[in-house]
Amino acid sequence: MCLAIPARIVKLEDDRAIVDAMGNQFNAKTTLLPNVKLGDLVLIHAGFAISMIDEDEARKTWQLIEEIDEFNDTQNKVSG
Amino acid sequence: MSQKEHDKILLAHGGGGQLSDQLIRKHILPRFANNTLAELTDSAKLNLDSKSICFTTDSYVVKPLFFPGGDIGKLAVCGTINDLAVSGAKPVAISVALIIEEGLSFDVLDKILDSIAATAAQSNVAIVTGDTKTVETGAADQIFINTSGIGVRLDGVELGFGNIKAGDKILINGSIGDHGMTIMSLRQDIGFQSQLKSDCAAIADLTCKLLTETKGIKFMRDPTRGGLAATLNEIAQQTSFDIRINDARIPINPTVQAAADALGFDVLNIANEGKFVSVVATEIADDCVKICQRHPLGQQAAIIGEVVETNDAPVVETTTRIGGRRIIQMPYGRELPRIC
Amino acid sequence: MLRRIRQAQLLMDAACEIAGRPINIMEVCGTHTVSIFRNGIRGTLPKSMKLLSGPGCPVCVTHQGYIDTVLELADRNDCLIATYGDMIRVPGKGGSLETRKSAGNIKIVLSSEDALQLARDNPSKTVVFVAVGFETTTPATAVVVKQAAKEGINNFCILSNHKLVVPAMQALLSDKNNKIDAFLCPGHVSVIIGYGAFKPITEQYCKPCVVAGFEPMQIIEGLAEICRQIIEGKPEAKTLYTAVVTEKGNLIAQNIISECFEPMDGYWRGLGKIPKSTLQLREKFGKFDAFKRFGVTEKPENDTTGCRCGEVLCGLIDPPKCELFGNVCEPQTPVGPCMVSSEGACAAWFKYGRRKKQNG
After folding, report:
1. Cβ–Cβ of B195/A45 closer than 8 Å?
2. CA distance B178 to B185
3. Which CATH architecture has domain C64-164+251-294?
4. Which residue in B1, B32, C29, C165 has a CA-CA distance of 20 to 30 Å to B39?
5. Residues from chain A contacting residue C87 (CB–CB below 8 Å)
6. So what's the ipTM on this one?
7. Yes or no, beta carbons of C351 and B189 under 8 Å apart
8. CB–CB contact A80 B286 (8 Å)
9. What is the dihedral sign for C-alpha B309, C33, C20, C176?
10. What is the pTM of this model?
11. DSSP per position, C337-349
12. C2-56+167-239 and C64-164+251-294 have identical folds
């Protein structure tokens, strides 16, 4: 269960934040992550930041997604 | 006798009397200026060179009235132009009927009228007739618009499900989900700030180009409500062929995808207002893509799949990014945001 | 990427061969169910590996009695119902929130914060927040309950149906007929409870519990890790979703849950009563408890529709085996919650699986 998206904190005041996900900005509460800072990458679920995201680990996932996309682009070029 | 200028719509503006006259002569006629309309007869008299006419109608209730990339006026004109365009016709004339809630400000109305006029003019479509009604506060949500349109079918063009054959390719002129996600981002209850922009546009110029410069376009449809998923399912149902597409080939703006992910929506089910799906013969598929890509409304055009023979109940199936397969169902008709 | 998929497949093949029988892995997360279908992952697995869709969708496991209670409150003139979109189409006896004529007082919210704001903005009405979800979502409810207490927002209350995942997993395994060899554990619940929460299961039942993310490769590698553990005979609780899941989880979130809620026995659709598996507000926050405030209880369930969601949720049958599937029960006209919820096994199966011509 549980849709959660990665987003970056672009505004923070007490536990009220604005987070950015690929250009979409949502309100979020950081009550469950009191140590977050501006610029942190966090996981957002139902309007709350529930976890910091380890960017090195996340990068591995994104790299994999990029690899898949590149693979598919190559396949597209080959099959036309 | 000089008449009092009102700053907002009153019921009397729809009453057929002095205020109606004022509304038409001061606000509508100057913006929609053309000889046919200026006669203000009960019907527009049109002289058309052809007996192959297309006729369509659509109503528009979008909220909010103004959004990045357009407004209800632009939408109302583009929607009807596009329905004619994908029927293989060159749009010629449209009607505009307004149902206006008492209390709507003339500022807002004039902006909408300006937009209608500009959009129609850009596509060389004349607004030849229309109607205005006013209703009490609460009986309509600010303004509802209906447009109907007439177009002349291009020579030798006969689009239809019956033309479609196994092996034909599926073409789309650009990214999906932009309009629907933009509107969603502006909703009172679940809205969010974004750089999203509606793709609202009149595609007739591009479709006419395609239809006159190539031979072998079988079918076209604009994937509005229900999105790409609905259109592809309609094709499968009506032709009894499978439609096989490839996730990796569908153009999607990453911001649109992220917004859809955040709300739990499927981009395939989201409305588009400046796109068309076309089924084309394999031999002309590459040419069609090239023609689109040279046009401002087709720069992300792509072949996303093909038509396939089947003995089973026809389905729309896609190949996923990791080489798996899944079926794309006809959408329910209302996307609900979810957290699970 | 292909190499990694191939490696994963080799591990899975080896595990199935060693086991000498089909391996059944239960995924206990509706978002995993959806991702598995959306990416067509089943088609990449060996034939003898079976993915069972477990009770991982909070909407699906919602007792019909709870829905009927929500509908009863929705009929009141003095109530505003605030709900996540997931619950809108779930059918109760008298329809759903969607079909309710009193739809004017039903508001979809994206966050519990929005529900609390609704209460601030509508002082003459009582806002009832339909609080469903597993541990990922519960902290969000707890935060606003505390905030309501702090600000004295007395026209706010919650109808809690928050559930706990581990008791459900234990209940499934304690059934002697279960066929579960391992669990693919929920990624985002684990963010909150930590993967360590699954250790009691690996220790008591010797079943691998692997937490995976939601991208298709993450799921495939999660399944491969399970197979590796089976081959080596060393079941353990582990996470591959290291970007966000730690052993201990989010302690602040856990603390706020236990500050506001206490576990009690609760009814799960299809699974019956599971001990200490549902959360109710503690006495301290009793005035925000809609059950107490309105004197309502979950109505007793008496399902005569023939719906087999329960068996689907336990992984005992695949959705197509239910007589209602694809006939009376379809996404447009759902009978049970597994078809309503976009994460429900039946909906996913219907949406993404293949159908043959009836007379083909």
Report:
1. no
2. 11
3. 3-Layer(aba) Sandwich (3.40)
4. B1
5. none
6. 0.89
7. no
8. yes
9. negative
10. 0.89
11. HHHHSTTSHHHHH
12. yes
C130 part of contact set with chain A, CB < 8 Å: no
Nearest CA in chain C to A54: C243
Cβ contacts of B320 on chain C, cutoff 8 Å: 38-40, 216
Tokens of B32: 């929609």
Is there a contact between C244 and A27 if contact means CB atoms under 8 Å apart?
A: no
In terms of CATH architecture, what is C2-56+167-239? 3-Layer(aba) Sandwich (3.40)
How distant, in Å, are the alpha carbons of C49, C101, C189 from that of C96? 37, 10, 27
Domain boundaries, chain C: 2-56+167-239, 64-164+251-294, 309-352
pLDDT digits (tens, 9 = 90+) for C249-298: 999 999 999 999 999 999 887 778 899 999 999 999 999 999 999 998 87
B231 bridge partner residues: none
Task: Spell out which residues of chain A touch residue B175, defining contact as CB-CB under 8 Å.
Answer: none
Instruction: Quickly count: other Cβ atoms within 10 Å of residue C123's Cβ.
Output: 10
- Domain with B210 in it: what CATH number? 3.90.650.10
Chain B from 170 to 199: CB within 8 A of any C CB: 189-190
Asked if the Cβ–Cβ distance from A43 to C191 is below 8 Å, we say yes
Tokens of C223: 């399944």
For residue C108, the chain B residues in CB contact (below 8 A) are: 189-190, 336-337
Task: Give yes or no: residues B83 and B122 share one domain.
Answer: yes
- Structural domain of residue A25, as residue ranges? 5-79
Q: pLDDT tens digits for A11-56? A: 999 999 999 999 999 999 999 999 999 999 999 999 999 999 988 8
